[in-house]
Amino acid sequence: MINLSDKDALFIEQISLGLCKDPFAFLGIHAVTKGVIIRAYLPEALTVTVIDEQANPIVQMQKIDERDFFAVELSGKKTDLSYRLLVEYAHITLDIEDPYRFQSHFSDFDSWLLSEGSHTRPYEKLGAHLVTQNEVGGIHFSVWAPNAKRVSVVGDFNFWDGRRHPMRYHSNSGIWDIFIPNAKKGTLYKFEILDRDGKIRLKSDPYAFFSQFRPDTASVATGLPAKVEPNEQRRKANEPDQPISIYEVHLGSWRRNLENNFWLNYQEIADELIPYVKEMGFTHIELLPISEFPFDGSWGYQPTGLYAPTSRFGSPEGLHHLISKAHEAGINVILDWVVGHFPTDEHGLAYFDGTHLYEHSDPKEGYHQDWNTLIFNYGRHEVQNYLSGNALYWVERFGIDALRVDAVASMIYRDYSRKDGEWIPNKYGGRENLEAIDFLRKTNAMLQAENLGSATIAEESTSFAGVTHCVKENGLGFDYKWNMGWMNDTLRYMSTDPIYRKYHHNLMTFGMMYQYSEKFMLPLSHDEVVHGKYSMLGKMPGDCWQQFANLRAYYGYMWGYPGKKLLFMGNEFAQGREWNFQESLDWFLLGEEGGGWHKGMLSWVRDLNHLYTKTPALYELDYSPDGFEWLVVDDAERSVFAFERKAKNGNSVIVVSNFTPVVRENYRMGVNQLAEYKEILNSDSVYYMGSNVGNFGSIACEELPSHNKPYSINLTLPPLSTLFIVCEPCIKSNKAKQNTQKTVVRKTKKTKGK
After folding, report:
1. For the chain, which has fewer Cβ within 10 Å, the N-terminal or C-terminal residue?
2. Which of the 8 DSSP states describes residue 330?
3. How crowded is residue 75: how many other Cβ atoms within 10 Å of its Cβ?
4. Which class is domain 616-740?
5. For the whole model, what pTM was predicted?
6. pLDDT of 79-96, one tens digit each?
7. Which of 459, 479, 518, 684 is flagged as catalytic?
8. Where is each Glycosyl hydrolase family 13 catalytic domain found (predicted)?
9. Catalytic site residue 396?
10. Which of 406, 572, 622, 684 is catalytic?
11. Rounded Cα distance, 617 and 729, in Å
12. pLDDT tens, 17-74?
């Protein structure tokens, strides 16, 4: 007969009420004077027998409390005894391992690192991990919930009953953990959290590597993805002196199943997307957010599971396959990374342990008015650790080559989209979010220190100084920044009727005033083709011919202008309607229904990409004044622009744009070299559905000063066009490259009567 002490009675009371923070101090195997005592809490069990490894019975346990607590003392045994429990229920008998005989997966050092926010890879400890302890396979579960009264793991393995597996609490870190023997890969689970107000909260795992398909919200236990080793090709492709042309993709609407309008899975996407991107000449793919999210209409920008690739398109292994196929094709993969806010869904991070754990408690700091979301509390070490660890996770475990950080401006300014009185100044009285700035700097510095070849890109819409400056120089440490100013100015210009463009000439040139203050990317992203902004084609004025000509000319200007390029899917063939995340792109436009116009645009973008990637003058010196020179900058009356792009070896390319529908014959323009010039690409070529006005390939140069240059060339500028021109010495010194560019050289002839 086992006698219960007052302490034993207190444990039984606390465990049965779900109030015990350390069930391991009572349950499981413990040393006593003459041997060991084994205790178990098994709700609804009729009998419990201790058995050995061969399932031989050792002894039947005594029911020590009517609330289904069992115990037995074994003389002469030690706490390293290997045993199991044979549990008889009303309709079934189960042979189970006792989870309370296994030690914690956490060391004191792990707990210290996690509480300090300095654990570089917190995902290797927190969450659900398939492990083996004492030669028994199972899953180790852990979660950070410092203010909870009790946390239990619930799932398939325990009938979703929070009484059965209360977890161990680590007071020095606020982490709860337990090892569930024999739990298998694919197990569904959640954390049942009893908050300090006595409310039960059922939460998905913040560190889950996979989740159920919405609307279900359980986490799915799966293995930590294998590491993807970096290589020199991928590392080099992110460098500022390399060509970067990004195809931005929403996986749910790029292409869909024609029979049921449902999504393609990761493998199907890989089979179709990668060859297409390769043929189009893009160097990078940028994926809109793929961390698990509950609402399709958020496009992924309101994630609830940062570590879980969305189950919409398949498993994490499927995503691995997609990225691997991109790498095999020489294409780098960029991921949109959302760490500025998160949704209020009950199963997610909001009010996680009954307190504002991941978010600020004051809505002036913690609530995002524009998106009805919550803002991370970057001042908490554990929150910073959760987020920065996620950056490394995607890079190291999936081979993501760059992270495009969403909505940076909303992170670094406390008054972002707020009126006076709706925000709280920082400790110095300023508007900067010092904690968010610290987080971004630390994350960028950490990724650079890991030396995995990854890059970070900021979507930052303000004039905040030093976004792409190194952390040591007080910068944020990003590699690139979206040039939102250039995008807005140039689109405003292009949407203006050509007859009025001369009054807005500076919109196309102003970007050069700040071009070298940051390492800029030129983005024509998804944000510009939704919410009534029209498609790229729809922004262009004029009739059908003029709209397409305008857009071709604009793309040519953009591909010639300094800065890496980004184009959202569908823009490459000038989809006529706005992007709809619920439907496939209008691929039918590339057939007869498109009248050839869209196919011509597709060919133009493809040829721009191939010319760009094979012409160092167009990318090597993007971030140096030595790589750019205006040749014609002040011809507002005729809306003509011309500039020269230069490579490190002195080779150059001249880009000339005429943004009126008027043919400019005998347009004299100053140049730097006396040589024979050659038109190598013309947006007005009939090949692209243009009017086929051009310069017959070769262009003579004369010792006739113009535009403050000693030499000049006499051009025919097609209507609404962009030309790419090289000089003969450049061509002769680079014959190999000329041969590879034959596919993009279009000799144009004047059409009859021109």
Report:
1. N
2. T
3. 9
4. mainly beta
5. 0.93
6. 999 999 999 999 999 999
7. 459
8. 248-605
9. no
10. 406
11. 14
12. 999 999 999 999 999 989 999 999 999 999 999 999 888 999 999 999 999 999 999 9
